[in-house]
Design brief:
alpha+beta, 5-stranded antiparallel beta sheet, 23% helix, elongated, Lipoprotein, signal
Length: 141
Amino acid sequence: MKRKVLSFIALSLLAAACHPAKQPTLAPETIYQEPGVSVITSFFNNRQQTISTLYGNAEALKAARGDSNMVAGAVYRLITWKQKGNPLWFGGNINGAVKTIESIQVSGDGVTHYALVSGVATGAPAERTKFVLGLKASVFP
């Protein structure tokens, strides 16, 4: 009798462990994809509850690593998301819904063109351009 009960418990535990594990899925609003751009730097503002990432084309990335961001043909995209709690990591924040998308292009004669692609402006175009062009590239090993 004892052997039957132990066998039943062992088989029950074995059967309970044989279901596929749940895989976490990323929320679709956390991903920004645009062909031909790379991450230059990222930062967060806990006071405003935002996370921002600066993307750029090859010219912008090269310029951000150097002394001057005024390289002809450089294209910058600053994406700002609202923060939301990470459901898989207690106390961590991840990207939520996109708050703003800002674009800056440097023309051949060194003139910058600012455009607010979506969202609400957080400052004057000249002020935002100066801020974005002042950001330096993160150092990746």
